[in-house]
From TrEMBL:
Keywords: Oxidoreductase. Residues 6-343 form the FAD dependent oxidoreductase domain. Transmembrane segments: none annotated. It holds the Pfam family DAO. This is Oxidase. It comes from Deinococcus aerolatus. PANTHER family: FAD-DEPENDENT OXIDOREDUCTASE DOMAIN-CONTAINING PROTEIN 1, SARCOSINE DEHYDROGENASE-RELATED.
Length: 372
């Protein structure tokens, strides 16, 4: 009996992880990626592997994915630059610091270490931060990775055939490529981020644009990934344009600086006023940053859902079509958990993540789709 043939649309971190999971179940995998492997949203992100606790489902997915990353890290090539630098969630004032304890308890319940730092301990851990900060939550198990290399590693391990093709439409039993060729498959996995919105417009997906900047060498020394504790509550809580302090140290002596959030702006151009806001906010936490030169600035497009959780599982109406999209800013963190969940839906393999609903049907009635 011939192996199941799976077509994965998208060669980013999520698509590569899904391809690897399918191959480990014996599937023959073809990945369709019109650009470089990991060259889309994967390359536009910070590669921050971080546990988030906005909802029980998000906490379960990110915490378990971090466990899977820790296992994978043993096999990754050095070029993937996986480093367990940990995260410091920085509290600006006593009110933010007082709100840390429920977050810490949630992390502990999920099996992740988290410790509270007071103002003096924070200043010792990160001397470059401005005086007067109240403290921080330290999550030592968080890490960073250069995701395009990790994605290529997983595709190679999977033995996947990677074709530089764009998909024009999903059809019954496969896909139609831009050039008109029909590619038949037993299973099609839609894992191309915001590109899924064009193929499946009935899904509740929308674009979220973000800016990142990398400094020249000789930037202020930072030891952890630094994120302001008000990242979601005060800075990124609504649908309007927003910025937040988020800085990552690079082994080259550079800093990767974020973050910004804009919905419904499909163009890739740089919004200079927003970028200035982002940098002023970062310099407000890390003053020496204002004296550091930028080497490059770029933008990326995320794929978001209404509840900020990904869509993973079977399409409700299209037979043989499975979803792995809508990860917003957590696609790299949750790629491995997503792949495990996809495998559970497809092959009946075990996963504790099945206790949470990541399918599109959680939004109620999804408009019925038809194959092209």
């Amino acid at each position: 009996m011939s192996a199941l043939h799976a077509v994965v649309i998208g060669g980013g971190m999520v698509g590569a992880a899904c391809a690897d999971a399918l191959a480990r179940q014996g599937a023959r995998v073809t990945v369709l990626e019109p650009g470089p492997v990991g060259g889309g949203a994967t390359a536009a992100g910070m590669g921050h592997l971080v546990v988030m606790d906005d909802s029980p489902a998000q906490l379960a997915l990110t915490a378990h994915s971090l466990e899977l990353w820790e296992m994978l890290a043993r096999d990754l090539p050095p070029q993937a630059d996986h480093r367990a630098c940990g995260t410091l969630w920085v509290a600006s004032d006593d009110e933010e610091l007082a709100a840390v304890e429920p977050k810490r308890q949630a992390y502990l319940a999920a099996g992740r270490e988290a410790t509270l730092l007071d103002a003096a301990e924070l200043a010792c851990a990160e001397p470059g931060l401005r005086p007067g900060l109240a403290g921080a939550l330290r999550v030592p198990g968080d890490s960073v990775v250069y995701a395009p290399v990790a994605a290529q590693f997983l595709l190679t391990r999977a033995g996947a055939t990677v074709r530089p093709e764009k998909v024009a439409a999903l059809i019954d039993g496969g896909v139609r490529l831009d050039g008109g060729e029909i590619l038949h498959a037993d299973v099609v996995v839609v894992a191309n981020g915001i590109g899924a919105a064009a193929l499946l417009p009935e899904l509740p997906l929308r674009q979220r644009k973000g800016h990142l900047l990398i400094t020249e060498r000789g930037a202020p020394q930072v030891n952890h990934q630094l994120v302001e504790l008000g990242y979601l509550k005060s800075a990124h809580g609504g649908d309007g344009d927003s910025v937040a302090f988020n800085v990552q140290p690079r082994p080259t002596g550079q800093l990767l600086v974020g973050s910004s959030r804009q919905f419904g702006q499909p163009e890739r151009s740089i919004d200079w006023p927003l970028l200035r806001r982002m940098l002023r906010r970062a310099a407000g936490f890390l003053p020496a940053l204002a004296q550091t030169s930028a080497l490059r600035v770029w933008t990326g497009q995320r794929c978001a859902t209404p509840d900020h959780l990904p869509l993973v599982g079977p399409h409700p109406f299209l037979s043989g079509v499975f979803l792995a999209t809508g990860h917003e800013g957590l696609g790299i963190t949750t790629a491995l958990g997503t792949a495990e969940l996809l495998s559970a839906h497809l092959f009946g393999t075990p996963s504790a993540l099945l206790a949470h609903d990541f399918t599109p049907m959680r939004f109620g009635r999804v408009p019925e789709a038809v194959h092209a």
